[in-house]
Amino acid sequence: GIYTDESLYKQMFTDHPARMLIVDLNTGDIVESNNSAAEFYGYSMETMKTMNVRQINDMTDEMYENFCGRIIRDKRQCFNIKHRLNSGEWRDVEVNTALITFNERKLLYSIIRDITDNIKNETERATAEKALRESEENYRMLFMEMLNGFGLHEIILDENGKPCNYRFLAVNPS
């Protein structure tokens, strides 16, 4: 049948390009890891199966217990967390996990996506937007508070490209 076909399991889990882990809900022990996850974390698949998920995430025991309660209630969860690689590097990941039961054992079937670069880009964009806002506020304050009169003009050109008129785009109160 479909559930005992080793080649199907290998294609759907072991060799799948998405990073996947199967974790014992009660203990946090990693029961299965696919090749992509093992490669991402920098461990062999065999080593991954000897580890506890708290060796790679930054959850305290209390946080893990709360998380397990939400999983039991909702049956699935999607969340962002930091995971530590074998190199010691921390990566921001999105974990999409579902509660499954196999042989009366509650397991978490998790797909892990590295979002470190996304978060870095969002942070850089937010920093740039803040700097732009501050620059605009400084310019506006300078423009509105200066003692000398100032006007910003647009020169209007005729069909030959020669100035023929102008209009005020902005003037300060002075």
Tell me the radius of gyration. Answer: 29 Å
Question: How much beta, percentage-wise?
Answer: 25-35%
Number of helices: 5
* DSSP, total strands: 7
Name the average pLDDT.
Answer: 87
The helix content is 25-40%
Overall 3D shape: elongated
Strand order of the largest sheet: 2-1-5-4-3
Biggest sheet: strands, sense, closure? 5 strands, antiparallel
Structural class: alpha+beta
Low-confidence stretches: none
Q: What is the H/E order? A: HEEHHHEEEHEE
Task: For the record, give the distance between the C-alpha atoms at the N and C termini, rounded to a whole number.
Answer: 85 Å
Keywords:
alpha+beta, two-stranded antiparallel sheet, about 35% helix
Layout of SSEs?
Blueprint (H helix, E strand, L loop, with lengths): L5 H9 L4 E6 L5 E4 L1 H7 L3 H4 L12 H14 L1 E9 L5 E13 L2 E10 L1 H30 L5 E7 L5 E9 L3
Antiparallel strand pairs: 1-2, 1-5, 3-4, 4-5, 6-7
Give an overview of the whole structure:
The protein is an alpha+beta fold. It is 37% helix and 33% strand. The chain has five helices and seven strands, in the order H-E-E-H-H-H-E-E-E-H-E-E. The strands form two sheets. Strands 2-1-5-4-3 form a five-stranded antiparallel beta sheet, sandwiched between helices. A hairpin with a 5-residue loop joins strand 1 (19-24) and strand 2. The radius of gyration is 29 Å and the shape is elongated.
In short:
The chain is an alpha+beta fold. The chain has 5 helices and 7 strands; from the N terminus they run αββαααβββαββ.
